[in-house]
Amino acid sequence: MFTKYINNFYQTILSFFSPGNIVLWWGKLITIIIILVVSKIALSVINKLIEKSLTPLEKSKNYKKRISRANTLIPLLQSISKYVIYFITGVIVLREFGIDTTAIIASAGVVGLAVGFGAQSLVKDVISGAFLIFEGTIAVGDSVNVGEHSGTVEVIGFRNIHLRKFSGELRVIPYGEVASFGNFNRGYMRAIVEVGVAYEQDVERGMKTLEDIANKWAEENKDIVLEPPIVQGVLSLGSSDVTLRIAIKVKSMTHWGAERELKRKIKDTFDEKGIDIPFPRQVVYLKREKK
Predict the structure, then answer these.
(1) What DSSP line would sit under 17-71, residue for residue?
(2) CATH number of 2-118
(3) Pure H helices in the chain
(4) Which residues does 281 contact at the CB level (< 8 Å), separation at least 6?
(5) Which of 39, 97, 239, 258 could be disulfide-bonded to 191 (CB atoms 3.0-4.6 Å)?
(6) Annotation: CATH topology of 137-183
(7) Exposed, middle or buried, 73 (CB in 10 Å: 0-12/13-18/19+)?
(8) pLDDT tens digits for 49-108?
(9) Could you report the per-residue pLDDT of 249-275, keeping only the tens digit for each?
(10) Between β-strands 230-237 and 242-251, what pairing exists: parallel, antiparallel or unpaired?
């Protein structure tokens, strides 16, 4: 019995390495290599077509907005095309090995449906991301605020956002968790500075000084200022100060620098004019008890 099994195994090995089978397998190997090369070339061509069709000309209208949208969509579409090409290539290679792929393709829909029910969070992330991307509410390079995290969008993937915080930390946030967010790159921003003056100071003088500072700064920065400064008057009456506020409408992403510069000028000017910016203080009365 053992000798019979050995002879059968030997005959199988000989038939496998017969000249006819060697030629057949070499033919399949060459075919598979050609398929892989063609898929690689096709993927490269598709990626270049996507990049060329979505990249706007430098002199086109709304270039900055369109290039931002291109930087968002190009990696996403290239990623999708890569997975599609890989799937098609895999199916063709399996056919070359004699594997029936009809059942695999037919069951893909059923498997996808089962995965969809089992991974509802994944489906939620993908659908939410599709609306965010194609509505143009967020793009690569935007400075955004998502929940308690603020930073610059580095990557918009198929399922999540890569957010680089100012500290350097990279936050990966699934689209399903983006219930709401703020985008600092859309339209305009306002540089808002609040400053407190002492109750002993003349409020009108403080407001006039703020107005002079803001107007002078706006004159020096016409390239980013969209509207004249507004001194909004007394904002609140604090425990030790009267809070005044000034607001200037500026181009997006310039308000942080504008606020820092205005605060420095306000501090220097108030010091020169003797306008007191108070700090929290308490008055303590000591009472002697009668003996």
Answers:
(1) TSHHHHHHHHHHHHHHHHHHHHHHHHHHHHHHHHHHHHSPPTTSTTHHHHHHHHH
(2) 1.10.287
(3) 2-16, 19-54, 63-96, 102-118, 120-134, 203-220, 255-273
(4) 240
(5) 258
(6) SH3 type barrels. (2.30.30)
(7) middle
(8) 888 887 777 776 766 666 766 776 777 777 778 888 888 888 788 777 777 666 666 665
(9) 998 888 889 999 999 999 999 888 888
(10) antiparallel
- The third-level CATH classification (topology) of the domain covering 188-273 is Alpha-Beta Plaits (3.30.70)
CA atoms of 138 and 153, how far apart (whole Å): 8
- Beta-carbon count within 10 A of 138 CB: 22
DSSP 225: B
Cα dihedral 152/157/158/161 (nearest 10):
-30
Q: How much is the pLDDT for 125? A: 67
Q: Which residues does residue 145 pair with via DSSP β-bridges, in sequence order? A: 150, 182
What are the structure tokens assigned to 101, written together? 């792929």
- The answer to whether the beta carbons of residues 142 and 133 sit under 8 Å apart is no
Report which secondary-structure segment, H or E, holds 234: strand 230-237
The model's pTM is 0.56
* Residues β-bridged to residue 143: 152
Each domain of the chain, given as residue ranges in start order, spans 2-118, 137-183, 188-273
Measure the CA–CA gap between 227 and 157, rounded to whole angstroms: 37
Cα end-to-end distance, the chain, whole Å: 121
Please answer whether residues 72 and 156 qualify as being in contact, where contact means their C-beta atoms are separated by less than 8 angstroms. yes
